[in-house]
Amino acid sequence: xESSPLISAGLPIALFIIMIGIGxxxxxxxxxQVAVYPKGxxxxxxxxxxxxxxxxxxxxxxxxVPPG
Length: 68
Hints:
This protein is mainly alpha-helical.
């Protein structure tokens, strides 16, 4: 399946603009808050790396989803 130029070029450019916009709103206070209270960041990271893939694998196994 061939991707269109809108997806191959437009999507990365849109993502770049969104990420720059989000990054420019960060302040020193935001980084200080993460350093003082790292629990939320740790829970979110563990959930994305371990919990969400395990849930996806369990759902795929339970629903007998074909590999493709």
